[in-house]
Amino acid sequence: MAKTVKPAGVHKHRFTAMGTPCEVQVETRDSRLAAELGRIGEAEARRIEEKYTRYKPTGVVWAINNAGGKPVELDEEAAGLIDYAAQVHALSEGRFDVSSGVLRGAWTFDGSDRVPEPEQIAALMPFVGWNKVSWERPRLTLPLGMELDLGGICKEYAVDRAAMAIMAASECPALINFGGDLRTTRGKSGGPWAVAIEALDPAKSAGGLLQIGEGAIATSGDAKRFLLKAGKRYSHILDPRTGWPVENPPRSVTVAARTCVQAGTLSTLAMLLGPEAEVFLKAEKAEAWVLW
Hints:
Layout: E1 9-17, E2 20-28, H1 31-52, H2 60-65, E3 72-73, H3 76-91, H4 118-124, E4 134-136, E5 139-141, H5 151-169, E6 174-178, E7 181-184, E8 193-197, E9 208-212, E10 215-221, E11 226-229, E12 232-235, E13 238-239, E14 244-245, E15 252-257, H6 260-272, H7 277-283, E16 287-291
Antiparallel strand pairs: 1-2, 2-6, 3-5, 4-5, 6-7, 7-10, 8-9, 10-15, 11-12, 13-14, 15-16
Helix pairs in contact: 1-5, 5-6, 6-7
Protein backbone atom coordinates (compact mmCIF):
# COMPACT_ATOMS: atom_id res chain seq x y z
CA MET A 1 0.00 0.00 0.00
CA ALA A 2 1.30 3.44 -0.91
CA LYS A 3 2.15 5.70 2.01
CA THR A 4 0.19 8.92 2.22
CA VAL A 5 2.49 11.98 2.06
CA LYS A 6 1.37 14.92 4.12
CA PRO A 7 1.03 17.96 1.87
CA ALA A 8 3.21 20.97 2.59
CA GLY A 9 1.39 23.69 4.45
CA VAL A 10 2.22 27.33 5.19
CA HIS A 11 3.18 27.88 8.83
CA LYS A 12 3.06 31.40 10.27
CA HIS A 13 5.28 32.81 13.01
CA ARG A 14 4.08 36.20 14.28
CA PHE A 15 5.72 38.71 16.61
CA THR A 16 6.15 42.46 17.10
CA ALA A 17 9.47 44.20 16.52
CA MET A 18 10.64 47.66 15.39
CA GLY A 19 7.24 48.99 16.46
CA THR A 20 5.35 46.99 13.84
CA PRO A 21 3.62 43.61 13.39
CA CYS A 22 5.98 41.04 11.86
CA GLU A 23 5.39 37.65 10.29
CA VAL A 24 7.48 34.82 8.87
CA GLN A 25 5.60 32.34 6.67
CA VAL A 26 7.25 29.03 5.80
CA GLU A 27 5.97 26.36 3.44
CA THR A 28 6.96 22.91 4.71
CA ARG A 29 5.58 19.59 5.96
CA ASP A 30 7.77 19.90 9.07
CA SER A 31 6.13 22.10 11.69
CA ARG A 32 9.20 21.97 13.92
CA LEU A 33 11.41 23.22 11.08
CA ALA A 34 8.91 25.98 10.35
CA ALA A 35 9.01 27.08 13.98
CA GLU A 36 12.82 27.08 13.95
CA LEU A 37 12.96 29.18 10.77
CA GLY A 38 10.42 31.59 12.23
CA ARG A 39 12.60 32.02 15.30
CA ILE A 40 15.64 32.62 13.08
CA GLY A 41 13.80 35.43 11.29
CA GLU A 42 12.61 36.94 14.56
CA ALA A 43 16.09 36.80 16.09
CA GLU A 44 17.53 38.78 13.18
CA ALA A 45 14.77 41.40 13.46
CA ARG A 46 15.42 41.82 17.18
CA ARG A 47 19.20 41.98 16.68
CA ILE A 48 18.87 44.82 14.21
CA GLU A 49 16.29 46.62 16.35
CA GLU A 50 18.58 46.51 19.40
CA LYS A 51 21.64 47.57 17.45
CA TYR A 52 20.14 50.49 15.54
CA THR A 53 17.44 51.85 17.85
CA ARG A 54 17.85 55.46 18.87
CA TYR A 55 15.84 54.97 22.05
CA LYS A 56 18.03 52.58 24.08
CA PRO A 57 21.76 52.42 24.87
CA THR A 58 22.08 49.01 23.24
CA GLY A 59 23.75 49.88 20.02
CA VAL A 60 25.43 52.12 17.56
CA VAL A 61 22.83 54.83 16.82
CA TRP A 62 22.35 55.63 20.51
CA ALA A 63 26.14 55.76 20.89
CA ILE A 64 26.49 58.18 17.97
CA ASN A 65 23.66 60.43 19.13
CA ASN A 66 25.04 60.57 22.68
CA ALA A 67 28.75 60.91 21.91
CA GLY A 68 28.84 64.62 22.73
CA GLY A 69 30.44 65.54 19.42
CA LYS A 70 33.21 62.94 19.73
CA PRO A 71 33.97 60.39 16.98
CA VAL A 72 32.44 56.91 17.18
CA GLU A 73 34.11 53.94 15.49
CA LEU A 74 31.65 51.70 13.65
CA ASP A 75 31.83 48.00 12.84
CA GLU A 76 31.64 46.72 9.26
CA GLU A 77 27.85 46.28 9.20
CA ALA A 78 27.06 49.73 10.62
CA ALA A 79 29.64 51.35 8.36
CA GLY A 80 27.98 49.70 5.37
CA LEU A 81 24.60 51.18 6.31
CA ILE A 82 26.14 54.63 6.76
CA ASP A 83 27.87 54.34 3.38
CA TYR A 84 24.54 53.42 1.83
CA ALA A 85 22.75 56.35 3.51
CA ALA A 86 25.45 58.72 2.24
CA GLN A 87 25.14 57.32 -1.28
CA VAL A 88 21.35 57.73 -1.34
CA HIS A 89 21.68 61.25 0.08
CA ALA A 90 23.91 62.19 -2.84
CA LEU A 91 21.73 60.48 -5.46
CA SER A 92 18.60 62.17 -4.10
CA GLU A 93 20.22 65.62 -4.05
CA GLY A 94 19.69 65.82 -0.29
CA ARG A 95 16.07 64.67 -0.20
CA PHE A 96 16.99 61.50 1.71
CA ASP A 97 18.82 62.49 4.88
CA VAL A 98 19.31 60.29 7.97
CA SER A 99 20.03 63.41 10.04
CA SER A 100 16.48 64.78 9.61
CA GLY A 101 15.01 62.93 12.60
CA VAL A 102 15.28 66.02 14.81
CA LEU A 103 12.29 67.40 12.89
CA ARG A 104 10.18 65.07 15.07
CA GLY A 105 10.47 67.86 17.61
CA ALA A 106 8.07 69.95 15.52
CA TRP A 107 5.97 67.43 13.61
CA THR A 108 3.57 64.83 15.03
CA PHE A 109 1.56 63.16 12.26
CA ASP A 110 -1.44 61.97 14.24
CA GLY A 111 -4.26 62.94 11.88
CA SER A 112 -4.93 66.20 13.75
CA ASP A 113 -4.70 69.79 12.49
CA ARG A 114 -1.66 70.72 14.63
CA VAL A 115 0.68 72.10 11.98
CA PRO A 116 3.79 73.66 13.56
CA GLU A 117 4.66 77.32 13.19
CA PRO A 118 7.41 78.24 10.71
CA GLU A 119 9.55 79.45 13.61
CA GLN A 120 9.54 75.95 15.13
CA ILE A 121 10.84 74.47 11.90
CA ALA A 122 13.44 77.19 11.43
CA ALA A 123 14.83 76.55 14.93
CA LEU A 124 15.54 72.90 14.07
CA MET A 125 17.00 73.33 10.58
CA PRO A 126 20.56 74.14 11.80
CA PHE A 127 20.64 70.57 13.18
CA VAL A 128 19.68 68.94 9.86
CA GLY A 129 22.07 68.13 7.04
CA TRP A 130 24.26 65.13 6.22
CA ASN A 131 26.90 67.53 4.87
CA LYS A 132 27.50 68.65 8.48
CA VAL A 133 28.43 65.11 9.56
CA SER A 134 32.06 63.96 9.44
CA TRP A 135 32.24 60.43 8.04
CA GLU A 136 35.72 58.97 7.51
CA ARG A 137 35.22 55.22 7.58
CA PRO A 138 35.08 53.74 10.16
CA ARG A 139 34.78 56.90 12.31
CA LEU A 140 31.68 59.08 12.36
CA THR A 141 31.49 62.42 14.17
CA LEU A 142 28.12 64.04 14.72
CA PRO A 143 27.97 67.73 15.72
CA LEU A 144 26.34 68.58 19.05
CA GLY A 145 22.56 68.86 18.80
CA MET A 146 22.28 66.61 15.76
CA GLU A 147 20.84 63.08 15.66
CA LEU A 148 20.97 60.17 13.25
CA ASP A 149 17.92 58.03 12.57
CA LEU A 150 18.36 54.94 10.40
CA GLY A 151 14.66 54.07 10.56
CA GLY A 152 14.29 54.81 6.87
CA ILE A 153 16.62 51.91 6.05
CA CYS A 154 16.62 49.47 8.96
CA LYS A 155 13.22 47.79 8.58
CA GLU A 156 13.91 46.88 4.97
CA TYR A 157 17.46 45.85 5.89
CA ALA A 158 16.05 43.63 8.65
CA VAL A 159 13.76 41.92 6.13
CA ASP A 160 16.72 41.18 3.86
CA ARG A 161 18.90 39.93 6.70
CA ALA A 162 16.11 37.69 8.02
CA ALA A 163 15.56 36.26 4.53
CA MET A 164 19.28 35.56 4.13
CA ALA A 165 19.47 33.86 7.54
CA ILE A 166 16.49 31.64 6.70
CA MET A 167 17.92 30.74 3.28
CA ALA A 168 21.21 29.78 4.96
CA ALA A 169 19.31 27.37 7.22
CA SER A 170 16.83 25.80 4.79
CA GLU A 171 15.62 25.66 1.19
CA CYS A 172 11.97 25.87 2.28
CA PRO A 173 9.99 28.66 0.59
CA ALA A 174 9.53 31.51 3.03
CA LEU A 175 7.97 34.97 3.11
CA ILE A 176 9.28 37.56 5.57
CA ASN A 177 6.91 40.47 6.19
CA PHE A 178 7.88 43.24 8.61
CA GLY A 179 5.16 45.88 8.71
CA GLY A 180 4.23 45.51 5.05
CA ASP A 181 7.80 45.46 3.72
CA LEU A 182 8.59 41.94 2.62
CA ARG A 183 10.82 39.50 0.81
CA THR A 184 10.40 35.92 -0.32
CA THR A 185 13.16 33.34 -0.53
CA ARG A 186 11.51 31.51 -3.45
CA GLY A 187 8.06 30.78 -4.85
CA LYS A 188 5.81 28.23 -3.16
CA SER A 189 5.49 24.74 -4.55
CA GLY A 190 2.14 25.64 -6.06
CA GLY A 191 3.21 28.96 -7.54
CA PRO A 192 3.89 32.53 -6.38
CA TRP A 193 2.95 34.12 -3.06
CA ALA A 194 -0.13 36.39 -3.04
CA VAL A 195 0.58 39.75 -1.36
CA ALA A 196 -1.99 42.42 -0.57
CA ILE A 197 -1.30 46.14 -1.12
CA GLU A 198 -2.59 48.33 1.69
CA ALA A 199 -5.81 50.13 0.75
CA LEU A 200 -6.14 53.92 1.01
CA ASP A 201 -9.81 53.49 1.88
CA PRO A 202 -10.12 52.35 5.54
CA ALA A 203 -13.29 50.47 4.60
CA LYS A 204 -11.29 48.15 2.33
CA SER A 205 -9.00 45.44 3.63
CA ALA A 206 -6.61 45.66 0.66
CA GLY A 207 -5.92 47.84 -2.34
CA GLY A 208 -5.10 44.93 -4.61
CA LEU A 209 -3.16 41.66 -4.81
CA LEU A 210 0.31 41.09 -6.22
CA GLN A 211 1.88 37.76 -7.16
CA ILE A 212 5.53 37.33 -6.22
CA GLY A 213 7.86 34.37 -6.72
CA GLU A 214 11.32 35.37 -5.47
CA GLY A 215 11.95 39.00 -4.64
CA ALA A 216 10.89 41.88 -2.43
CA ILE A 217 8.16 44.51 -2.10
CA ALA A 218 8.14 47.75 -0.10
CA THR A 219 5.53 50.47 0.27
CA SER A 220 5.77 54.11 1.29
CA GLY A 221 2.69 56.22 1.91
CA ASP A 222 0.72 58.49 4.19
CA ALA A 223 -2.45 56.46 4.72
CA LYS A 224 -1.98 56.50 8.50
CA ARG A 225 0.46 59.35 9.20
CA PHE A 226 -0.64 62.81 8.13
CA LEU A 227 -2.09 66.13 9.30
CA LEU A 228 -5.20 67.82 7.89
CA LYS A 229 -5.76 71.56 8.31
CA ALA A 230 -8.14 73.85 6.43
CA GLY A 231 -8.69 71.17 3.81
CA LYS A 232 -4.94 70.68 3.16
CA ARG A 233 -3.33 67.31 3.79
CA TYR A 234 0.23 67.32 5.14
CA SER A 235 2.09 64.08 4.39
CA HIS A 236 4.57 62.68 6.92
CA ILE A 237 7.15 62.56 4.11
CA LEU A 238 9.35 65.53 5.01
CA ASP A 239 11.79 67.29 2.71
CA PRO A 240 14.89 67.65 4.91
CA ARG A 241 16.06 70.59 2.83
CA THR A 242 13.09 72.68 4.00
CA GLY A 243 11.77 70.88 7.09
CA TRP A 244 8.27 70.82 5.56
CA PRO A 245 6.22 68.00 4.01
CA VAL A 246 6.77 67.23 0.34
CA GLU A 247 4.15 69.01 -1.77
CA ASN A 248 1.62 66.84 -3.61
CA PRO A 249 3.20 63.41 -3.13
CA PRO A 250 1.38 60.21 -4.09
CA ARG A 251 -0.74 58.68 -1.36
CA SER A 252 1.14 55.42 -1.75
CA VAL A 253 4.05 53.97 -3.74
CA THR A 254 4.71 50.22 -3.85
CA VAL A 255 7.87 48.92 -5.55
CA ALA A 256 9.02 45.39 -6.37
CA ALA A 257 12.76 44.72 -6.53
CA ARG A 258 15.36 42.05 -5.91
CA THR A 259 15.94 43.11 -2.28
CA CYS A 260 13.76 44.90 0.24
CA VAL A 261 16.35 47.66 0.72
CA GLN A 262 16.25 48.38 -3.01
CA ALA A 263 12.46 48.39 -3.07
CA GLY A 264 12.24 50.60 0.02
CA THR A 265 14.75 53.10 -1.29
CA LEU A 266 12.95 53.46 -4.61
CA SER A 267 9.52 53.85 -2.98
CA THR A 268 10.85 56.45 -0.52
CA LEU A 269 12.65 58.46 -3.19
CA ALA A 270 9.51 58.42 -5.34
CA MET A 271 7.49 59.86 -2.47
CA LEU A 272 10.15 62.52 -1.84
CA LEU A 273 9.88 63.62 -5.47
CA GLY A 274 6.17 64.40 -5.07
CA PRO A 275 4.47 65.02 -8.44
CA GLU A 276 7.53 63.62 -10.26
CA ALA A 277 7.23 60.21 -8.57
CA GLU A 278 6.03 58.29 -11.61
CA VAL A 279 8.53 59.98 -13.94
CA PHE A 280 11.34 58.90 -11.59
CA LEU A 281 10.11 55.31 -11.32
CA LYS A 282 9.79 54.99 -15.08
CA ALA A 283 13.30 56.36 -15.56
CA GLU A 284 14.57 53.76 -13.08
CA LYS A 285 12.60 51.04 -14.92
CA ALA A 286 11.08 50.11 -11.57
CA GLU A 287 8.16 47.71 -11.26
CA ALA A 288 5.87 49.98 -9.26
CA TRP A 289 2.28 50.78 -8.34
CA VAL A 290 1.44 54.40 -7.52
CA LEU A 291 -1.81 55.53 -5.91
CA TRP A 292 -2.79 59.22 -5.83
